[in-house]
Structures are given as C-alpha cells and as structure tokens.
Amino acid sequence: KTVKLQETVQELAMVADSFHTKPLRQYLQSTNRYHVLGLGLKDIQLFEGNRHSLVRVELLSDVPETITDALGDELTEKHSTVASYGGTGGNSTNMHHGQGGKNDEEDNDTERFFRTVSKSIYENYSKPTGWPLILAALPNHHNLFQKVSKNSFLLSNGIEINPESVSIDKLADLAWSIMEPEYLLKLDTLVEKFAQEKADGKGSDDMKEIGVAAVEGRIDTLIIEADRMIPNKLTNLVTGNIQNRDLTNPKVDDLLDDLGELVIKMGGNVMVLTSEKMPSETGLAAIFRY
C-alpha cells in the first residue's frame, strides 16, 4: 500500500530486520479523518479531509447532488427554475399556489431537501466510515439542517460560510479548527484512562512487563513516544525477554517500534504521542485487556 504524505517529514535511515513504521503510524493516526458537507439551496458538495488535506468526493450515483435530484416532480416551480438544470418538464406546471402558499411550499422544499441529503449522506458515508461530519453552510441553514438531521456523526459545531465562496485550502483550515479540539480531547482521554488503569493494576509503563504482556496478547492499547528510540530487542516471542542491543546492529530496530508492530499483530491498538503528551517517563505505556 502507498500512502501519499501531505507534509514534509524528517529524514531517517534505519537498517534492521524489520520495517520501522512508527513515524508513518503517527502520521496516519493524526489524520483523524472526517467529512465536510457543503450545503446550499441548489446543490451539495462532499469533502473528505484530515489534518493535512481536504479533497472533494465524487458522490455515488444514488446520492442527490441537487434539490431537483432529491425532490424531482415534487419540487415547486420557483425552486425548479432556480435550482435545476433541465427543469421538471410539464409536471412543474401542475402546482398552483398563491404567493403565501408558494413561499410555504418552498420552505417545505428546503426542509425536505435537507432531510433527504442528511439521510443519504448518513447511509452512504457517515455510517460506513464512522467519521465525524462537519456542516459548511450559510448561518440560516445550520439550524434547520441540525433540526431535521438524524445523523449521529454530525458535529454540533459547523462552518458558517457559503462553501463555494472560499478556496478548498481555506475550507480545510476552517474544518481542522473544529476537528483539532476533538483530536486533542481523544488523546487526553487516553492518557487519563491509562492513569486509571495503572492505578487499578491493569496498566504499566515497565518495559519488561509490557514485553511479556505483548507476546501474550494482553495489551489493549500501547502508547509509545514518537521521538524516542530504545536500542533493545525482543529476543524471545514466547517469554517476552528483552535484551540491550546496539542500533548499529542491522538486526536491531527501535524496541518501541517492534512492540508496536507486535501489539497490532495481536489485535491491539497503538498510539504514538509526543514526549509532552506521554503519560510515562519510560517511553511507553500499556493498557491491558486483563
């Protein structure tokens, strides 16, 4: 698999009998993927984003891109004229209203359009991925969309702007300003959980204890320090024995990297944190399954 990086990374050369994946793992975890829904009265846009970039998604064929796609023949004449590209044919002349009735019908069109869009985005994108959804729309559209949406992944905070009036880079910056607190909260919650589990005897920052737990598949989550390397080697995958070695040895990699790969292989989770965020002084911390 090829991962295209959206930022410059520090050069690092490692010679060992295993791949050194810790820097890449940190990059991928910090992406914290999300969707941005650009919503207007006429049409919608969907974007897929992370910490580093935002790209437009080509919508699936059954996802309505315009209000005409969503409502079809049920669309009022005014909305049909303004929002469609081909009109609705003779069917659009079947509805006759006074001015007040037409305005009410157009408001209903908007609500039904938002409801249809919300359901379609949830079924086709939010539910399968589990990613947060950020709404980018004019301020007067946020309340209505939040009211009619049943999408549990829709964030309460949104971007109050016409998404077509800003560049995609600006939209990405606005989206990450919403996502970053969510991402940092997730990290803080993990650190707090480790402290509690360690106090309850279900966590450790002891290298040897973690080595044994890793080979036994008892680690639920392993937290490792990003910019730290420990020139030790897990020499026995049965006992979890760890020995001091030299990184100049081509058979020796960073112990933190090796333990991370082992925990992933055993079905656990790995988080790579900066030294400022680490909950221990040893370079690693583990939350045990039991």
Provide a descriptive summary of the structure in words.
- With about 290 residues, the chain is an alpha/beta fold.
- The protein has 2 domains: about 20-30 and about 200-290, Ribosomal protein L30/S12 (60s Ribosomal Protein L30, Chain: A, 2-Layer Sandwich); about 35-180, Nucleotidyltransferase, domain 5 (2-Layer Sandwich).
- Helices cover about 40% and strands about 15% of the residues.
- It contains 8 helices and 11 strands.
- The strands form 3 sheets. Strands 3-2-1-4-5 form a 5-stranded mixed beta sheet. A 4-stranded mixed beta sheet has the order 6-11-7-10, with helices on both faces. It has a two-stranded antiparallel sheet with strand order 8-9.
Brief characterization of the structure:
The protein folds into two domains: 22-30 and 201-288, 2-Layer Sandwich (60s Ribosomal Protein L30, Chain: A); 34-182, 2-Layer Sandwich (Nucleotidyltransferase, domain 5). The protein has helices spanning 22-29, 67-71, 77-83, 99-129, 139-148, 168-199, 207-215, 255-265, and strands spanning 34-39, 44-49, 54-56, 133-137, 159-160, 203-204, 219-225, 232-234, 242-244, 269-273, 284-288.
Biggest sheet strand order reads: 3-2-1-4-5
Quick one: CATH class of the largest domain? Answer: Alpha Beta
N-end to C-end Cα span: 33 Å
Number of self-contained structural domains: 2
Summed over residues and divided by their number, the pLDDT gives a mean of 83
Return the string of H and E elements: HEEEHHHEHEHEHEEEHEE
Number of strands: 11
CATH third-level topology of the largest domain:
Nucleotidyltransferase, domain 5
Q: Please state roughly what percent of the residues sit in beta strands, choosing from under 5%, 5-15%, 15-25%, 25-35%, 35-45% or over 45%.
A: 15-25%
Structural class: alpha/beta
Number of helices, counting only DSSP H or I runs of 4 residues or more: 8
Major β-sheet profile: 5 strands, mixed
CATH architecture of the largest domain: 2-Layer Sandwich
Taking pLDDT < 50 over at least 5 consecutive residues as the criterion, the unreliable ranges are: 79-100
* Helical content class: 25-40%
Shape: elongated
